[in-house]
Amino acid sequence: MLYYSIKIIITTFLIVLISEIAKRSSFLGALLASIPLMSVLAMLWLYVDTKDVNKISMLSTSIFWLVLPSLALFVTLPFLLKQGLNFYLSLSLAIMVTMVCYWFMVTVLNQYGIKL
Fold first, then answer.
1. How many Cα neighbours within 13 Å face the side chain of 55?
2. Which of 53, 83, 98, 103 is least surrounded, with the fewest CB atoms within 10 Å of its CB?
């Protein structure tokens, strides 16, 4: 239980740290957020838990393929906000567009025999 608490505290601390830095500097906040901290932490926690490098490799490959459709959020959200839409509506629509892109990517990858 202590181990899970430590994992939660470290992960939460990093998210809060990035959001606090972003309040002062959008560039630094974006720089830190663009570093795949969550992916690295997930791989680290998975390795510590399992010592299975094959699982780490599979996770890393899946993350690679799923980063591509996730970029739709970062294109859609600022576009909608610049159109004058409410933040929460823009965020919701951007998430929906991203979900469609995830579905499309997984469907295309499956057709080429790539299983995530």
1. 11
2. 83
